[in-house]
Write a structure and sequence with these properties.
This protein is α+β, with helices and mostly antiparallel strands and 181 residues long. Helix content is 33%, strand content 15%.
C-alpha cells in the first residue's frame, strides 16, 4: 500500500521536495540518523514506532538516496545500520529549519521538550537553518550540534556521511535519555 501520492515528477520544486520530506516519520528517522542512531532496534525504541512503519520509511529514504545501509556484526549475525549519504547530509538545513521554527512558534509541553541548533565552532545557538547567527559561518553536519534537552545536558555532534567523517567521536547515539527528541 502506498504511503501517499507520488509527487516526484511534479513541476514544482517544493512539491518534489515534499515527496521526500513531507512525511513526519521520515523526518524523525533522519533526525535519529543525524544523532548517530542508525540501528533499526535503537530507532524503533527511540521513535516508539511499529516495525512496518519504520521499515517502510527506511526503505524510502534509502531509495531516495538520503540514507545507505552499512553492514555490522552484532556478535552473531551481520545486520545493517543506516548512515547518511552526501545527499542526506545536505538535508540538514531542512531539519534545522523545522527545529528553529518549532522552537519559535510552538509551545513545548514541558521545560525539557526543547531542541536547539548549535554552531559547534563558536558554541552559539543559531536562529538560522544554514548560517550561524552568532559568527556568520555556514552550518554543516561537521560543525553543527543539536541540543535536545531530553537526550543530553550538552549539545551532541551530528553524524556525517561516511566519506566526510573525521576520526572523532561525532554522532554517538549512546548518550540518549528518555524517548522524545
Amino acid at each position: 500500500m502506498a504511503l501517499r501520492s507520488d509527487w516526484s515528477q511534479r513541476n514544482c520544486s517544493m512539491a518534489r521536495g515534499l515527496d521526500i520530506f513531507g512525511d513526519p516519520w521520515g523526518m524523525l528517522v533522519l533526525r535519529e540518523v543525524f544523532f548517530g542512531n542508525g540501528r533499526f532496534d535503537a530507532m524503533k525504541t527511540r521513535l516508539q514506532v511499529a516495525d512496518s512503519v519504520l521499515t517502510r520509511r527506511l526503505s524510502a529514504l534509502v531509495e531516495s538516496g538520503l540514507l545507505a545501509k552499512q553492514p555490522y556484526d552484532d556478535g552473531g549475525r551481520t545486520r545493517h545500520e543506516y548512515v547518511l549519504t552526501a545527499k542526506g547530509e545536505d538535508a540538514l538545513p531542512v531539519l534545522n529549519a523545522v527545529v528553529i521554527w518549532s522552537e519559535k512558534h510552538l509551545q513545548a509541553p514541558s521545560g525539557q521538550a526543547h531542541m536547539y541548533v548549535v554552531h559547534a565552532t563558536c558554541g552559539q545557538r543559531t536562529g538560522s537553518a544554514d548560517t550561524c547567527t552568532g559568527c556568520g559561518e555556514r552550518l554543516t553536519a561537521q560543525n553543527t550540534s543539536w541540543h535536545s534537552l531530553t537526550r543530553s545536558e550538552e549539545p551532541l555532534p551530528l553524524a556525517t556521511a561516511p566519506h566526510t567523517k573525521k576520526p572523532t567521536s561525532r554522532g554517538t547515539g549512546g548518550k540518549e535519555k528518555g524517548t522524545a527528541a
